[in-house]
User: What shape does this take?
Amino acid sequence: MRSFRLVVALILSAFCVSVIYAQNPASANLPVAPPNLLLLMHQEVPAGRAGEAERLQVSLSRACDRLETPSYWINLQSLSNSEESLFFDPFESFDLLEQSRAGWSQFYAAHPDLARMKDQIDEIAGGERTVFAVRRPDLGYLTDSIDLSEARYLRIVEVHLLPGREGDFAEGLKILADAHARIQADAPWVVYEVKLGVNNPTFFVFTPLLDLAKNDALLAWEQSIATREAGPSLDRLTQIARESYATAETTLYEMRPLTSHVSSEFADSDPAFWRHATAVEFRPDRIISRKPPKKGSPAKSPAQ
Assistant: This one.
């Protein structure tokens, strides 16, 4: 039963957006398409200091909107854990990531007020976990139609595999993709493989959501999928989950535009949601530094 639930969780993560994309078959343009490389930083902020951290992050994000920065980020808030947030930094290569890190060091050297603000945020935050994940285009389904700027929520299935089971996981996703194709399901998903930051083989399956109402159909879809795929395909999926998965956890996140910093091209794709530069006034004179910036230490981007 446990292995079947793992299979269902992965299947549902792919099906839950079918209604969203059925009305938008056009390919997404590059600024809003899933990137080749992701820096993902999970951050936990104590509940008693969440408001303080958010005010600082909003001010930092708005200040960065007004300046030229080396890279961008999307901030997401967990709906099941009010203390957990996720910073989602897109890049096209590790080379550009390296250039970004050097660029942020120069940026904060030129803007010490923002460096102090970033230090304050880091001081408030509790545990952080950072991973680097590379897109696996061979494992996605209809990913050309994904438009991240239209997403309001992001469902993430984090799958930890037993060592040497990457091939089984890939086989399972291809079985799911074939099943989707047979019924002409317009339900895109994108897959990332973690390259740095974990010990065991780890994959993320991302499915964007336009609104939470799409989750109302999950139970019905579960029954429909189990019935439609009954037989050798479902048996193989269950076997893969039982023999290959260490854990599989699904988390639903909400997009937070006020604490994000996206490119102008990305914001232009849905300005009503992403353009908010005038919503909060950046006042560096109101920043209270608890400690001076560390000398000689490399600066990080807001999501690093």
Notes: Residues 163 and 212 are 35 Å apart (CA to CA). The two ends are 39 Å apart (CA to CA). The chain has two domains: 2-32+134-252, 37-131+264-286.
